Amino acid sequence: MPIDKVAFFGDSYCFDTVSRKISNGTDTPFYPPTPSYMDIFAEKHNLQIVHNGTPAHGPNWMIHEFREWLASKSQEYINETHFVFCWSDETRQIVRSKGIISEKSRPDFEDTLHPGEMSLPGPDTPLIKDEERFDQRVRQAIELYWLYLKPWGQTTGEAQRQFTTIKDAWALYMRRYNITSHQNYHCFFHSSIYWKNGKNRYVMGYYKFESHPPYKIVAISEKPILWGNPIDEIIYPDENPPVIFPCGAILEENNFLVSFGFNDEKTGIIKI
């Protein structure tokens, strides 16, 4: 049976940047309406995009949408679909919004997606400082939560348990609906090394890992593939450090087309 559709599940890394609508059809205020790596992939392989990710949502929501989507489709429809999963941060949790978000605050896409709930703002989001959306006590509570209870970037036993549980649930639905997976996955990652004047210089690398537990890494780039370019230091000497940030990738014959952000101000695509 030929595959003529592709479904993306995850966060803003696979959000529909053309229509700017989430899965239930609600408009969002995010991003300019422009094609992305997903549209290039779909056009290149003559596929119809039938699902996209949800901005600011974590793996728990990804597996929820995956389950609900599968339950709403026939097995024939599922068999004709290629699936792509963009793993988000497990610290992205959904909490109640009633009594937390100000009644004066305008509704957003989360009010229709999961009424009475919202995604917990991250420690570096401007939303924490939004006085119209949250009162002072709520903003302080969010800041204290990230400072003392859930330090950003900290690896904890609970984070590993969440990761394992979601992976197991994902594998269960793959088996239940007879969805086969590729033997290996590819990932372009970003990291950083100390540069100078208290700044890090960001780099992009690559690794390949198995699609089954324990998800062993089988290949990794020996050196960075791309480096953040320090040329902007001349123009903005006190601003951000040199940054390279991979966003999406398409395997085209024996090459990858990788989209990336550059110095927090430009975007590009490179063939590797």
Features:
272 residues, alpha+beta, 4-stranded antiparallel sheet, 3-stranded parallel sheet
Describe the 3D structure.
- This protein has 272 residues and is an alpha+beta fold.
- Among the domains are: 94-149, no CATH class; 182-272, no CATH class.
- It has helices at 37-44, 59-71, 75-79, 109-113, 136-149, 157-176, 232-235; strands at 5-9, 48-51, 81-85, 94-96, 117-119, 184-196, 199-210, 217-220, 226-227, 244-252, 255-262, 266-271.
- Strands 6, 7, 8 and 9 form a four-stranded antiparallel β-sheet that branches. Strands 2-1-3 form a three-stranded parallel β-sheet, with helices on both faces.
- Strand 1 (5-9), helix 1 and strand 2 form a beta-alpha-beta unit.
- The protein is globular, with a radius of gyration of 20 Å.
- The mean pLDDT is 83.
Topology:
Elements: E1 5-9, H1 37-44, E2 48-51, H2 59-71, H3 75-79, E3 81-85, E4 94-96, H4 109-113, E5 117-119, H5 136-149, H6 157-176, E6 184-196, E7 199-210, E8 217-220, E9 226-227, H7 232-235, E10 244-252, E11 255-262, E12 266-271
Parallel strand pairs: 1-2, 1-3
Antiparallel strand pairs: 4-5, 6-7, 7-8, 7-9, 10-11, 11-12
